[in-house]
Fold this sequence. Notes:
Layout: H1 21-33, H2 35-57, H3 62-78
Helix pairs in contact: 1-2, 2-3
Amino acid sequence: METLRHEPLDILPNREKDMTEHQRSYLERYQRLSKDLKRAHELKEACNVWFEIAKANRENNLLDTKERLYQFYDVVKASG
């Protein structure tokens, strides 16, 4: 008897822009089911944006990186 195997649906590790349509449909479904999951995903995306900027800034613009990190902290605090 053959065992059916399914690929894991890893929607949270992926950036939303890199998701397949299938992954995005699941994400949208989960976001409709839970405001908390929707907010968690929004925070994850915001963190990824900060991280990409920090990588681009490297050591050349640490002040900007630090300022944007504090802005991210404010977004997290405001989320509850």
